[in-house]
Write a structure and sequence with these properties.
Mean pLDDT: 92
CATH class of the largest domain: Alpha Beta
Distance between the termini: 26 Å
Structural class: alpha+beta
Number of helices: 7
Helix content: 25-40%
Shape: globular
Strand order of the largest sheet: 6-7-8-9-10-5-11
Strand content: 25-35%
CATH superfamily of the largest domain: Leucyl/phenylalanyl-tRNA-protein transferase, C-terminal domain
Length: 217
Amino acid sequence: MVFQLSKRIAFPDPCLGEPDGLLAVGGDLSIERLLLAYSHGIFPWFSFRNRVPEWWCPMQRFVIFPDEIHVSHSMRALMNKQQYTVTVNKAFDRVIRECSRLRYDEQGAWLGEDMIEAYTRLYDAGYIISVEVWEGEQLVGGLYGVCFGPCVFGESMFSLVPSASKLALISLARRMQERGGLFIDCQFETPHLKTMGGRYIPYDEYIAMLHPAIGLS
């Protein structure tokens, strides 16, 4: 079932959504609604040209556990060259704009101005992490996600040179390892993320980890 949201900031039981994970439509992209959504594993994903938010919550969650991040031999060789520099939260605006620009003309592109503004508000409130990859002074890759307690909900990544987004993801996972991070929610499986160590876990297992980590019973 797909639910129609009202102005009230609330979501239906995620277990009642469609088999593909679509749960609800409507509502807004306020900080309060977004944080409530992510606290239950719900995320917005919709074509920005439609302008009506769609909210998704798959019952099988594709995640990467930081200590399971896969670093291939070729990536180790690239990292050992020290050709690139990685920073955190130094250029969020540029990262999200690049993620949007590179996908803007794709059918179903979702990272339009409304979403950029919503995630910028979350960044200003301290709930976004961005990872930037630099070659000298040039930004060549990166990613950003919602950072909620020890969990990161990955939103988008980009590469202007080969393997830059992989380097950003490895750097994020290692940072989380150092700080006791639990998991990176990849939202949907891609071949790229699967090779990096992504795997499915049931929603019940996912929530059993998420809720205690963010102070929910």
